[in-house]
Amino acid sequence: MEVKTLARYIRISPQKVRKLVGAVKGKRVEAVLNELKFMPQKSAGILEKIIRSAVANANQNANMDVDSLVVRNVVADSGPTLKRFAARARGRGTRILKRTTHITVTLADSSS
């Protein structure tokens, strides 16, 4: 059985979240949360929060055994981009792209 959790419109670039996806995929939830706690990246804290939410969903809605959960998949898709302008030399303006991310975490039983 699988449980999905989706966090949308997170104010971080998808590229920065994808750096941590390899470190998380396929491991037990307990080990993943322990690793993410000590990683210095901003995306590690965000990913930790989403995985905790997925574990709570699995416990509450699906009545799954929380101790046997494994991170099956993590997907970081790009959300809408906020477009801003910053002043530059000689009266010019430069566009600044503030990217957002939709993060999907899928947990599954280790037996399946």
Question: Could you please describe the fold and organization of this structure?
Answer:
The protein starts with a strand and ends with a strand. Helices cover 35% and strands 36% of the residues. The protein has 112 residues and is of the alpha+beta class. It is built from three helices and five strands, in the order E-H-H-H-E-E-E-E. The strands form two sheets. A three-stranded antiparallel β-sheet has the order 1-5-2. A two-stranded antiparallel ribbon has the order 3-4.
User: What fold name goes in the CATH topology slot?
Assistant: Ribosomal Protein L22, Chain A
How would you describe the shape? elongated
CATH architecture: Alpha-Beta Complex
Strand order of the largest sheet: 1-5-2
Number of domains: 1
String of helices and strands? EHHHEEEE
What's the mean pLDDT score? Answer: 93
**Helical element count?**
3
CATH classification class: Alpha Beta
Task: List the quaternary state of the chains.
Answer: single chain
**Helical/strand content category:** alpha+beta
* Helical content band: 25-40%
Kindly, what is the distance between the CA atoms of the first and last residues, rounded to a whole number of angstroms?
A: 7 Å
How many β strands by DSSP?
Answer: 5
